Amino acid sequence: MAIDKKYLTNRVTGEIGQASAIHFPKTRQEVVKIIQEVRDNQQKLITIGAHTGLSGATFPDDNQVLMSLEKLNKIVKLDIETQTLTVEAGVTIAEISNFLADTPYFYAPDPGSKAASIGGNAATNAGGMRAVKYGVTRDNIRGMRVVLADSSEIQVGSINRKDSSGYDLKDIFIGSEGTLGVITDLDLKIQPKPQFTRDILLGFESLTSLAPKVFEILSSGLVPATLEFFERDSIAFSERALGLAFPKIVGQAFLLITLDGNDSVQLDKELTYLTTLSEHALVLTKETRENVWQLRGAIVSSVELETIQEPLDVVVPINSVAPTILALKKMAKAEALSAIFFGHAGDGNIHANILKNQLTDEEWIGKLNKYLDQLYAYIAKVGGKPSAEHGIGILKKKYFQNYIGKNELSAMKRLKSVFDPTSLLNPGKIFD
Amino acid sequence: MAIDKKYLTNRVTGEIGQASAIHFPKTRQEVVKIIQEVRDNQQKLITIGAHTGLSGATFPDDNQVLMSLEKLNKIVKLDIETQTLTVEAGVTIAEISNFLADTPYFYAPDPGSKAASIGGNAATNAGGMRAVKYGVTRDNIRGMRVVLADSSEIQVGSINRKDSSGYDLKDIFIGSEGTLGVITDLDLKIQPKPQFTRDILLGFESLTSLAPKVFEILSSGLVPATLEFFERDSIAFSERALGLAFPKIVGQAFLLITLDGNDSVQLDKELTYLTTLSEHALVLTKETRENVWQLRGAIVSSVELETIQEPLDVVVPINSVAPTILALKKMAKAEALSAIFFGHAGDGNIHANILKNQLTDEEWIGKLNKYLDQLYAYIAKVGGKPSAEHGIGILKKKYFQNYIGKNELSAMKRLKSVFDPTSLLNPGKIFD
């Protein structure tokens, strides 16, 4: 049976790879069997979640065997007493959100793609909008079951709230992009939904005038649930794609801030404080709120409709956000490259999406590579990291290897060799 | 030069070990040199923080070389822009707290012993009183420098707020009890101090009537900064030792709850809710507050003045706290063993301190071992863990090894072999 082209495609570059087979296991036992088979046949295995990744981590570049976990997709158990939701790896973020909609609980991480699977989120340590208050995926997983390359199964983490009983195995597998083991099911931390939310949009003349306000907010003791920034030209893509209008507000650069909590009086007080940070402040009504968040959420997919893009997810220390954005803009201008900038200001996580537009393939590759060389050199210089939340995959591998310390890379390679000595699982991803 | 007996003593059992030498490095470079020397001489090395551990993790049972980091004790840098405090491993919790006293920031973890070093806290993933709201040590370390057994130095973690760039090396070393590397300096997460705090004491007839209230509080959406429980007989030790009186309040079992935040109106509302949970509620004044916390903090050291004790720090899922405490009490009674129970109710972390009192050494060992066998079997049965915050060391090794899965133990041993193939660092601790 032919393999659906979707699974062979690098979503970012459009490149088509080759795989020798694809499997759709429905149980952990089937995962174990597939790993055994692949090992016996001396093949290599790539595990796929929902194929929404942006770093090429599941791209078959060497005729590997593919294993999509999309049918390992049961919601197993809601345990309100320990505030734990147990799900299989193929369950999507949207399914988790829908499942919890009628309960008093929510799963806090809110990554861009709601079509992403929770297993993929764990494998990349996905971040998202609410990380500034609620942490990233890592912070919201209590335990997991993982099948190792030798097909043995291990339990990592647990539903206990504290643990100093031996080495922390859980955090090794989170963010390991399918290279150390296959995550089959997860115990997620859920928590009581806050009773009230407030959303406010602050307009600024430019990112230069916006940036200092981020530090001011974070230092004030106020912990917003989200603290997003974007420019008018980013949101314009979503406006065109969705046919929705961004609210009337003066400015070229915006902060979109959500407050949540159980005390509406306190939230209103915090809101009042936030309105002092810009002459152009718009508290969102229920209706505009939905529009604005839809527009914000659709930036990446809307750009995709108009041009090829290189979606970057660098992270820098929070006091470097402002100079970094300005420097990255300046570099793009110098290369005559179009780029949009947005991201999670509260975490220092900057999305720079570089746009191909009318460039020929050759121009695009040439300019892009030149730009990326400069960009990642800058990020390393200010103490940042190449990936905040998408992972390294193959697309950022070169830059990751260039800037990580020799001893740190050696430690990671040793980890790989111990859990997957024959490099059975997703070989050649993250590092060579 | 003779080695001060303190460093040779197992603080819990009183046992005296033997070491071949002791070093007090003052810089990371000296740590590197000591590791090289120990390796060249085919010796073994035990790293000591402030010698406050409760699991025998630094006990020299085989003539090892000791390295105390108490002189590696500089506060290196306060970076308010990234809210990071960089310190060397030998700095104590009290020193960090004093240093930050005049700033608007605090380091959230509040482990029992303020004399403990931050390096020791990281090595055991220390928990403490405020974990229910602010997390454990793991959650409050941004980055660390670690010297490995081959004397290479690595940077793990960073001051970036998000990171999906390769494997998470940081969390491997946190909680590894000096067996994988030597943590020399740390970048700690600090955060703005909450402006207001409220403390309330709730009295109950017994732990049986207290326990359900813990779940009620945690489910209400309220996130207390601390949620401690203890019985009157625990606090009686502190009253005798400190010459302080516990406030007049009806009850045999108590919840001691701290709320903190920036909105005093909201805190008062939460306080009002808490007073509905018991007929005997006492909102603490500034004066009683200090007394009560001193009494709570002094339980372990006060018991130490009267008798030998075995201080346990088991953890169970939060819905098992009530039945577990009752079961452990019942087992102690059946063995005619004195025991006190207290702990961090919000985390499921139960301290059961078993008291030797008038028992002969032989009776004590016999009864204690019988009790521990039953206790750890029970903890495993309800899905708990032998150590929430003290670590395994040597004292809990047997039980840890009994109840951890075969594959999980094998994974941990593989980790050890990767970072310390000749078992140079703290051999025989955590597992054989």
Automatic annotation (TrEMBL), chains A, B:
Single Gene Ontology MF annotation: oxidoreductase activity
Pfam families: FAD-oxidase_C (PF02913), FAD_binding_4 (PF01565)
Cofactor entry: FAD
Domain FAD-binding PCMH-type span(s) in chain numbering: 15-193
Keywords linked to the UniProt accession: FAD, Flavoprotein, Oxidoreductase
SUPFAM superfamilies: FAD-binding/transporter-associated domain-like, FAD-linked oxidases, C-terminal domain
Domain of life: Bacteria
The keyword Disulfide bond appears for this protein: no
Keyword Glycosyltransferase tagged: no
InterPro entries from the UniProt entry: FAD-bd_oxidored_4_C (IPR004113), FAD-bd_PCMH (IPR016166), FAD-bd_PCMH-like_sf (IPR036318), FAD-bd_PCMH_sub2 (IPR016169), FAD-linked_Oxase-like_C (IPR016164), FAD-linked_OxidoTrans_Type4 (IPR051914), Oxid_FAD_bind_N (IPR006094), Vanillyl_alc_oxidase_C-sub2 (IPR016171)
Protein's UniProt name: 2-hydroxy-acid oxidase
Species per Swiss-Prot/TrEMBL record: Pseudolactococcus hodotermopsidis
Source organism phylogeny: Bacteria, Bacillati, Bacillota, Bacilli, Lactobacillales
